[in-house]
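in:
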């Protein structure tokens, strides 16, 4: 960029943008209330660093609290229109929140700093500038200090923003607010559909040791049967060709899956491939399509996560592939095991946080299943729900990418 103007701007605005420090466009910077949180009193809300969503920067209302203090002398900590909060310490340093009147009567806590934007500037425009790579770089550089990272009020006040005239600020701020609302709407729809699927899993699969589910498709009345998974499937584990032998990895001829890829849920391709020579000289083996893939180990929440392959592929040793026999439907087994994620985590370790699964543990799993025809009905229903959930996630990702791109192009 050759001038103090953005790559994209609204028609009718031609003036150069002027650099202003956050301290110049704000009336003051104030530290928050030094009080613990208590049960919500129905009116007075208390916002802490952990109450600000990391992605949307909205006030999370799942577990609302009130400040445990005498509020008759705490008016100075009550948020007003145009207030922006900044996290001043810890891993979330730099996280921001723009007060929304719809959030109600909100007091802010001590690890937050409030900047009250002056009326001659648009607070939404200023807030959107705290979501840019320019701001993130400022936070990264400024917060680097020994021990716990932190940024104080004086340091926040030094952050520079290029500002157009107020009318253009308002236009830009409103544009991003509408985009944020669209993202929030898609996210809400996505979460509702996930919750609906989880509820249906509870109703269409037997719970708490029962042999029939709460809801069944019309025309099916036969009893469900308990089956040991290892007696009705072939369970295989894979392997990794030696990484220091290039002939095992080139040419890239055979799809090869690592345990982290179970998070894709449905595998239409893999991130890596191996050569035919690599397959022949390792314990990797072909897995037929429509097998259930379960992570035996992996970082974070990977262990116990299940997926299904839509193409033949090979896997590493941290994945077990379950090739079901003709009396089981792979989509049904996939959904059954997905709904038992916590059980699988605990099965692999006493505390659910360490350890690993193995083929024998999986083979010993019991599955309560109806006829194959009823399995297919149930499996197809959840596959369709999964497809819709994936589509919504893709749309949400696109919107988030659009916003990230527009922040770079519409803000200097």
């Amino acid at each position: 960029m050759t001038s103090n103007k953005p790559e994209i701007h609204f028609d009718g605005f031609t003036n150069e943008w002027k650099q202003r420090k956050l301290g110049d466009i704000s009336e003051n910077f104030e530290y928050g209330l030094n009080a613990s949180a208590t049960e919500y009193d129905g009116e007075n809300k208390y916002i802490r660093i952990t109450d600000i969503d990391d992605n949307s920067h909205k006030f999370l209302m799942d577990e609302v609290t009130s400040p445990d203090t005498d509020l008759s002398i705490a008016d100075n900590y009550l948020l007003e229109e145009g207030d922006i909060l900044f996290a001043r310490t810890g891993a979330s340093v730099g996280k921001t929140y723009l007060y929304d009147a719809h959030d109600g009567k909100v007091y802010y806590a001590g690890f937050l700093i409030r900047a009250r934007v002056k009326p001659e500037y648009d607070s939404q425009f200023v807030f959107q500038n705290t979501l840019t790579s320019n701001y993130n770089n400022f936070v990264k550089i400024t917060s680097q200090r020994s021990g716990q990272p932190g940024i104080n009020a004086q340091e926040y006040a030094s952050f520079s923003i290029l500002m157009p005239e107020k009318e253009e600020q308002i236009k830009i701020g409103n544009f991003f607010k509408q985009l944020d609302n669209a993202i929030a709407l898609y996210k809400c729809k996505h979460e509702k559909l996930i919750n609906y699927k989880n509820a249906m899993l509870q109703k269409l699969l037997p719970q708490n040791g029962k042999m029939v589910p709460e809801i069944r498709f019309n025309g099916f009345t036969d009893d469900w049967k308990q089956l040991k998974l290892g007696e009705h499937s072939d369970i295989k584990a894979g392997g990794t060709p030696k990484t220091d032998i290039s002939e095992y990895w080139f040419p890239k001829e055979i799809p090869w899956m690592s345990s982290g890829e179970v998070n894709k849920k449905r595998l239409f391709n893999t991130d890596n491939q191996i050569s035919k020579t690599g397959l022949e000289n390792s314990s990797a083996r072909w897995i037929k399509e429509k097998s259930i893939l379960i992570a035996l180990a992996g970082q974070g929440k990977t262990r116990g996560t299940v997926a299904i392959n839509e193409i033949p592929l090979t896997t590493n040793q941290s994945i077990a592939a379950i090739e079901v026999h003709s009396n089981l439907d792979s989509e049904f087994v996939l959904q059954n095991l997905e709904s038992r994620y916590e059980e699988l985590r605990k099965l692999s370790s006493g505390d659910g946080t360490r350890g690993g699964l193995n083929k024998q543990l999986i083979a010993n799993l019991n599955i309560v299943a109806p006829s194959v025809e009823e399995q297919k009905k149930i499996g197809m229903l959840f596959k369709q729900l999964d497809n819709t959930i994936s589509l919504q996630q893709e749309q949400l990702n696109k919107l988030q990418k659009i916003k990230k791109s527009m922040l770079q192009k519409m803000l200097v």
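note: The longest strand covers residues 26-31.
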